[in-house]
Amino acid sequence: MTQKKLTKFLIFSLLMLLPISLVAQNIKGKLTDASGEVLPFMNVVVQGTTNGTTTNENGEFSLTVKELPVNLVISSIGFKTKVVNVKNTSFLNIIIEEGSESLEEIIVIGSRNPNRTAIDSPVPIDIVDIKELTAMAPQVNLNQILNFVAPSFTSNTQTISDGTDHVDPASLRGLGPDQVLVLINGKRRHTSSLINVNGTFGRGSVGTDLNAIPAAAIKRIEVLRDGAAAQYGSDAIAGVINIVLNETVNELAIAVTTGAHFSKNSNEQTGGSDGETTNISASYGLPLGDNGGFITFSGDFDVREDYNRMKEWEGSIFNTFNTIERLANADGASLNDLFDADLTDVIKYGNQAGLGINSNATKTDLIGINDGLNSVAGVLTQLTFNSSGDITGVSPIDNTTSELAARGLNRTDFNMRVGQSKVRSGRFFANFKLPLDDNGTEIYSFAGVGSRAGNSAGFYRLPNQSRTFTPAYIDGFLPEINSTISDQSLAVGIKGKIGDWNVDFSNTYGKNAFDFIIGNTYNASQGVASPTTFDAGGFSFTQNTTNLDISKFYKDTFDGFGVAFGAEHRIENYQIVAGEESSYTQYQADGSPFNGVAGTSPLNDFFGSGRPGGSQVFPGFGPKNELDRDRSSVAAYVDLDAKFSETFSTTFATRFENYSDFGSTLNFKLASIYKVSDNLRLRASFNTGFRAPSLHQLNYNSTSTIFQDGIPVEVGTFSNDSKAAKLLGIPQLKEETSNSFSAGFTTKLPDANITFTVDGYIVNIDDRVVYTGQFAPQVDGNGDPIDAANTELQGLLVQANATAASFFANAIDTQSKGIDLVITHKATFGNNMRLNTDLAATFSKTEQVGGINSSQILKNAGLEGTYFPEDSRIFLEEAVPRTKINLTNSLTAGRFNVFLRNVYFGEVSEATNTIANQQTFSSKIVTDLSLGFKATQDLTLTVGANNLLDVYPDRAIEANRSGGRFDWSRRSQQFGIGGRFLFARVSFNLK
């Protein structure tokens, strides 16, 4: 559509949605609780419409309606929903009773019925009051807030995992980060541009960066724990998270939170404090007009320091050649000259080290290589043997103990940073609504911008490794990954009525981008010419979604009948941008790029091992990786919601969707709820769903360093339409498909003021997309490729500066099943003491069903175990807790508030391919405690702790510690390894 046509269309849509009301009635009133206290920020909505407002700080509201009589639906978290019939314009004094904070709240998600509450929903929905949690709980970022409040949600900070150190993958119901859809104010949120390819939960998936949204901008979060692809489209297999933005006006809210980890294992397990964190947030809203219009501004700045839980490196650090280097360096000699053909300096400083080298020695004499393995090792090397006494290799002689002493170093000087990465971030959001008439017509918009600078480290490059160029770093080095993450979003829309139909037309844009600067590192193959800082390039993802939603509620059909239908058009773009040449290139000794041509070789170390190319820890993206890919999709849906009687309701939805890159899909959902009595409801649902493979999974390609049992391997990720994929028989990607069933009940015990819900579910997913293991060329006993296909594969790997290849593939089918339980209780003691107790639990299990969906080529080659290796199975089935229980108590007494929460994290397992090293980590309980004091009407002080008792996961067994690098698993985390976190918060609320 041309720009001119688009402009005409938007103007036409605007005019169609601006009916002129000839008669208007203004309703005014005031809301109080039973004790006469005013109730600010309560929702007041005309039943069956989107026309509504909120009470001001004095509990008062004003609302214009087209005609009387009308029913007003009044709701807010912590109070019972009340319906008031208004027949005239007399001032209303309305008393609202306290009640369930979640089940009676009018919901946006899961139903397009404007009167639907969570307790009447045929599918399970959690409502999370973010304002209350950010006032009392220790957590300030969205992932951690939800991780500790919603048992079905899991997210943890990752470590030693490249970009995933800076974006926490999240899961709902134990499924993948890309199988939950995120909405903001009911509109689809864009995903991150990062795809997880390192050794963490969610490997091979693309999630949504929830931490890009400041908590200060959020009013509440609605978590739909049920498949909803038939309503919202791709990704909504596990459920939907809808973030409802803040609408508060005439109130300036400022909060400053600071804290640190005070743990027995802080500072490389010596104790003290580390990981200091400071968050400053603010929000303010202005009323617009007299009909409930507003504009709110919210944002925060976050400073998070790193922490390290590695005690010390226990493996080899130096060899005898490093001793020669130390002596040469002390004498002012050039270390680079030690690698050339002239052995004069090597012999000179070797003899100073007491090695007794013959003045006529050759390199063969020094390293013990002569047409194969000698029976006697050279001066600088030693032989290794197998159990039969056969020689298996030649390796440099370890000289770590004496070298540490000679250099005045300790083993801790070679530690990695295992734990939390360093982050600096700023986020800003705005939310806007402006009614245009008295009939519910309004324009609305929300927008967000954010920037995050992350700093993390990889594996320490030790001086005895070929990937360490010791003339530049004589003691090795710890390479750093510096990421700059930018995020932008903008939604604009107009809603109103055409006749009796509600119409909502909107456009939502979002973009996420990563740029990588790799510091304190080296391109070992470049020798002395290498820089120490590299621009490694980056990637971005952009999404634009246009929606037209039309609905009508027939209050006289059955006991109420809602009809909704609409259409969606979405455009996506994914780009990879190359870095500088030295960040991705492997060089020869003469400084020219190595391309694998016969007769050429990369720069070698003294012992003949090739030095890997590219910036160490994170090789950059090259011109061959660069791409700019687009796709589009169109969808149409119908959503029916019928209340057949006072006791029985049913919803039905169906959605057709067509993608430009893989075709069409049709899905449906059927859900019902039966009201047995005023206090008991039964509900059930069945739905089909799908998830289109992301543009990232279809197109991402790169080379990265993966450590397998502590050994670095350069792994190339190739797309599914690549030549490497065809040689190995990797099928092209297609969509995941699913079907799920859930059933449960909700009940209330009014006399005890208790509500609880129980829901069971089964989710079957076919053709689930995973990230494969590493495929290396198959070779014979002489190390040569066994056939032409493997020879060609080896050539492709050389061109990619890699030794193995991985892919994204529809490798398996899975089944997830579980039970979710939510119990809430409220009690009042006297006039000013209130106790809220919430118990929530999830018991879930995900398993692979059937065999591996591989090609005949893979089966014939015996490569199914590489296509879907054991560690991938564990990541899917056992890397997040199957059981999670949350018990929260919040006591308010006058000016004081006490918050106590215990979270039970169930067992997880170490993700490893070595069966003998598989380990199960036992369940743990983490306790949060805080005390708040309202010093004045505007000032609240809060102090408290996350993980008060300083609980850690079980320590890793010796085989999984990687020589002391990981005393706690980095692959399967229950709740992090930071230990106790103490915090203090000052909150200002100026009205």
From TrEMBL:
What's the protein's topology in the membrane? Multi-pass membrane protein
GO CC annotations on file? cell outer membrane
User: Which stretches make up the TonB-dependent receptor plug domain?
Assistant: 119-240
Keyword tags: Cell outer membrane, Membrane, Receptor, Signal, TonB box, Transmembrane, Transmembrane beta strand, Transport
Which residue numbers delimit the TonB-dependent receptor-like beta-barrel domain? 442-948
User: Would I find Lipid metabolism among this entry's keywords?
Assistant: no
The family assignment reads:
Belongs to the TonB-dependent receptor family.
The entry's protein name is TonB-dependent receptor
User: Which species does this protein come from?
Assistant: Polaribacter vadi
